[in-house]
Description:
The chain is built from 16 helices and 12 strands. It has an 8-stranded parallel barrel, surrounded by 6 helices. The protein is globular, with a radius of gyration of 22 Å. Helix 1 (33-45) runs parallel beside helix 10, helix 9 packs across helix 10 and helix 12 packs antiparallel against helix 13. It is an alpha/beta fold. The longest helix has 17 residues, at 286-302. It has helices at residues 33-45, 60-71, 91-105, 121-129, 132-142, 156-163, 185-194, 216-223, 242-251, 266-278, 286-302, 322-334, 337-347, 377-388, 391-406, 409-416; strands spanning 3-5, 12-14, 16-19, 50-52, 78-83, 110-118, 145-152, 170-174, 198-202, 229-232, 235-238, 258-261. Keywords: Iron, Iron-sulfur, Metal-binding. GO terms for molecular function: iron-sulfur cluster binding; metal ion binding. This is Aldo/keto reductase.
Amino acid sequence: MQYRTDPKSGERISALGLGCMRFPRGVLGAIDQEAAERIIARAAEQGINYLDTAYLYPGNEACVGAAFEHLGLRDRFLIATKLPHASCKKAADLDRYLDEQLKRLRTDRIDYYLMHNVTSPAQWERLVGLGIEAWIARQKERGRIRRVGFSYHGSAGDFSTLLDAYDWDFCQIQYNYANETYQAGTAGLKAAAGRGLAVFIMEPLLGGRLADKLPDRARRVLDGAEERVLASAAGSVPLDAPAAWGLAWVWDHPEVTMLLSGMASPAMVDDNAAIAQVALPGCLSAGQRAAIGRVREVFEQSNRVPCTGCNYCMPCPHGINIPGCFAAYNASYAHGWFTGVSQYFTASAIRSGHPRLASNCVRCGACARHCPQHIEIPDRLVDVRRRLTPGPVGAILSRIAGRADDTGSGRGAAASSGRGGASRGQGREC
Length: 430
Ligand code: SF4
Ligand code: SF4
């Protein structure tokens, strides 16, 4: 495993971190504990020493805590988890959440503690008003929190303001070859590193869209690249999959301390660890960077809605599979219209007799405020409807969907969604 140094603490951190948000789940939605433990155990075997979870990932902290106890691995990992700051209405809430997180994780300390999904400096200022700076100092003194940072999904301009608003230890940003100028972007990466912060990367493959879901034309660019081996002083590894290219592109940046990958199986841990071993800063050749530049151009032509499939906007009270709709829409540009329509019909449960189409959106607005990609979801669902169910097809399907509503299934969808008000969509922030 390649290790990089946290410039502020001197801690050695594996270049590859384990993101726990996408642990496998069973049919009823609960995390598959045994599968998660196999992934954590393999990560430890591969030398990964950083693990990222969050209060708001359902069942996740408890799963990690139980895994550490079963496997006896607590001291092999640096644990990162996140404060659901939007739910902190008074100073006592800070203690209440941290107490609960320590209990769930079955530990006495959080190594890297993040303000979860900060999108504007005003959110931090509100916490300052609750006394969070003195609170952090007390927790550090007690050893309950070792380092403090934030995960970020706001604009590039606000990012610099936020960096200067506190003496942060680290930050976590969305970064990949399709997002160089999106959110914090390359400018934010360099600004944070320039201030001496450790920079951790999330969404290095854009929720898989730069991996297995890469458009066919973009994949052909990679398959046809002349230099399909990654070589460095640490060895060599074949660049035989889009994911390998995407991860290597991130690690190529010397400002990156660690990259989080939501690995869903031990085999995926092995694959990514093999690349991490070789992908030192500056590992890509000029030709390989140029190939990725061509892939970026092709990808942007089909990336009509920048949805990463994170599910933070779900559930929709009207039963619409929002990320499924956007995945189908993008697929219609990446892989052809018929492929997109086929995916849309599956995502909309057309065959169930109770379809939930993009046209079922009533613009209630419950979803968009939770989207870290700032997608205007109701407007973009109109685009989905227009492209994937044009003319009479749309009219017929809308009539079917309307009948389903008449049967009361729409109410059932709302009732069964377990909606919990403002805190609901934050449940899967990153
Ligand atoms: S705005 Fe539309 S998609 Fe969003 S939650 Fe409301 S009905 Fe669902
Ligand atoms: S919250 Fe945004 S990015 Fe995440 S699944 Fe919903 S629309 Fe996509």
